[in-house]
Amino acid sequence: MAVHCKVRVLGLLLLCINALCVQGQSYSGGSVYNDMVFKVVVYGPADDIFIWWGHAALIVENTRWNYSRVFDWGIFSYPSDDFLKDFLDNQVQYNCDVESLNFQPYIDEDRDIVVYTLNLEADAKEAILNYAEDMVRPENRYYNYHEFRDNCSTRIRDLIDMGTGGQFREWAAKTAGRLSVRQHVRRFTWSRPVWDWFLDFLMGQDLDAPVSAWEEMFLPVEIGRNISDFSYTGSSGAERKLVSSVEIINASKERPPILNVPLSRWPGALLVGLVPAALAAAINILRRKKPLAGRIAWGIFQGLAGMALGLLGCVLLYARFFMKNDYVRQNINLLFINPLLLAALPLGILSAAGRVRAKPETCLRIFWAYVAGAGVLTLLLRMLPGFFQQNQAVLALILPLSGLLSLGAEFHPEHSKPANGGLRD
């Protein structure tokens, strides 16, 4: 299956047309690149998860021959019908392709479209175009995609730097970034709270390290923000503004806006975490009034809670040892959410069945005390230089329940006083 189906014959035809144009204009005694306009187009988010953070491409317009080409490093294909599965298996292939300019599909998707016209010299245009045309050749088109270090946006960023003779990178690499990578990612996920929490849970410590403005431009919108006011020194020694004009082709009407800074998610996560904690407290009350029903509910509840957290721990363990995505490996959440918690499921069943001699209740209390204690430990570890992962939203969801369950009392039915005058339920 291929996304953005490309007709490669069209790309080759356009390259041939360009070669003819170059030849024709060389004969006329002028520089072909004086008739070319280079633009960066930044697209807003779309519905699919792999386009939640937008897209960027290079537009090359030939004003004499009135045609445009788009060089796009965001083309990808995956062997099955499940992008997420192939992505986790590292089976998604990314490549560069060239196509004719057509904004209509993006407008139909209600996506933001902003075009930045670059103020480049002829030599810079020549270098960029030669490089881009070389990258669409079959032997060069594929590259090792990385979400934050090598993607459709960073490729455009690098071309811009090429056009300024390295001055753009020199400036951006020395300029401190506004936010961490984690914070930038969450600017786009705030309207999907479940996904926002899960991605926050999955992302490791490396994404909380300080970054430069250069590194922030893994996001297309950050390219637009940084190039808008940037100036560089041209070959004549005069200062040139990098962007000569900005044109808004389309403004989304229905999509949630991109936040300037991410929302603080931990207060909402705390409220959500208090719900199962309140349910556990209610079951504890039920245990006193309805011993048998309370015991069954208490055991099942703890088993299900352990299973849910244990499955999340399996995801983290898989990410740590089997995924090639380096940004999920150093994850301190694995300290207190891991596959060991799956043991709470059989222990909960034993507790519900009343197997007092096996002391499942004591084991469960130890499990939950471990979760709560390890979670608090991750907070304390952030006082040390080497630990800086921002996992407040994860802790806010987990700690209320684990803390309450760690205080649960032993249940002895033979010592329970019936609540209905001698008849047990």
Draw up the topology in text.
Layout: H1 8-27, E1 36-43, E2 55-62, E3 67-77, H2 83-88, E4 93-100, H3 104-108, E5 113-118, H4 122-135, E6 142-143, H5 152-163, H6 167-174, H7 181-186, H8 193-202, H9 213-216, H10 220-227, E7 231-233, E8 239-241, E9 243-250, H11 266-289, H12 291-321, H13 344-353, H14 360-381, H15 392-405
Helix pairs in contact: 4-5, 11-12, 11-15, 12-13, 13-14, 14-15
Helix content: 40-55%
What does the overall shape look like? elongated
Largest sheet: 7 strands, antiparallel
**Count of individual domains:** 2
Mean pLDDT: 87
**Uncertain residue ranges:** 1-17, 19-30, 410-425
Overall radius of gyration = 29 Å
Taking strands numbered 1, 2, ... along the chain, how are they ordered across the largest sheet?
6-4-3-2-1-5-9
Query: In DSSP terms, counting alpha (H) and pi (I) runs of 4 or more, how many helices?
Result: 15
H and E order: HEEEHEHEHEHHHHHHEEEHHHHH
